[in-house]
Structure formats: structure tokens, C-alpha cells
Amino acid sequence: KKSDDRAVIGIGIIDSKVIDTNPKVKLSFDDNESGPSGGLMTALTIYNDLIKEDLTDGDIISGTGTIELDGTVGEISGVKYKILGAVKKKAKVFLVPSGDNYNEAMKIKKERKLDIEVVSIKTFDDAIEYLRNRK
Prior knowledge:
- This protein has helices at 39-50, 79-88, 100-112, 124-133; strands at 2-3, 6-7, 61-63, 66-67, 73-74, 93-97, 117-121.
- By secondary structure, the protein is of the alpha/beta class.
- The strands form 3 sheets. The protein has a 3-stranded parallel β-sheet, sandwiched between helices. It has a two-stranded antiparallel sheet with strand order 1-2. The protein has a two-stranded antiparallel ribbon with strand order 4-5.
- Strand 6 (93-97), helix 3 and strand 7 form a beta-alpha-beta unit.
């Protein structure tokens, strides 16, 4: 990649794990659904498939954020496009990392008068707690 008029190369290291679950969990993604910003929602989808209750209560829940091994939800780029996509898909809730991402989402919500609840999330447990208690 070119950076400051010179060629640079980098290496990314990831931690890969295979986990057996009962029931089995199978994930499939559309071509445009990839990258670390889907970490929170992927983790929530898996969790929701493994428990008896439905955390969504039949509603469309959308969100964004990276997920760390300790459950911390990290900020991402492109919040504007993600919240607009959530509204287009008729989501009731948009879970977003706290801090700058949350502030940006709230700004877009107010400017465009979007009909969606924007929820600030710091950890995976925050997201679970919110979804359980919103009913």
C-alpha cells in the first residue's frame, strides 16, 4: 500500500477459535456483510440462537461495533451509513458503541428525524442487559 509516497507492507494477526455448540450454530453472510464492525451483532446473533428466550422479541434490532475477547465493544467508521441502513431495514433499535460513534448516530438521528432508538453500548453484557430489559 502507498503511504506518504512510499510503499509499505503490514501484517495482521488474528485469534481464531473453533467452538462446538449444542445446538449447532451456522452463520451465513451476504457479500456486503463483512469486517470487524459486525462483531457485536454477530456475537448477539450467536448468543440469541443458543438461549431459549428471543432477545429481539420479534423486532428488528440493528447495530455496529467491534467485539473484543473481554466483551468490550469498540468504535467503528461509517456510523452514518449504518444507522441509515438500519432505518431502511425498519429496525426499531440501533446499538452503537458509546463515545464518538454514539454522538455521531444521535446527530444523524436528530438531523434526519429518524424513527429509531439509538442505544449506547460499552460491552456485550450492556447489549444483553438492554435487550432483556426493553420489553
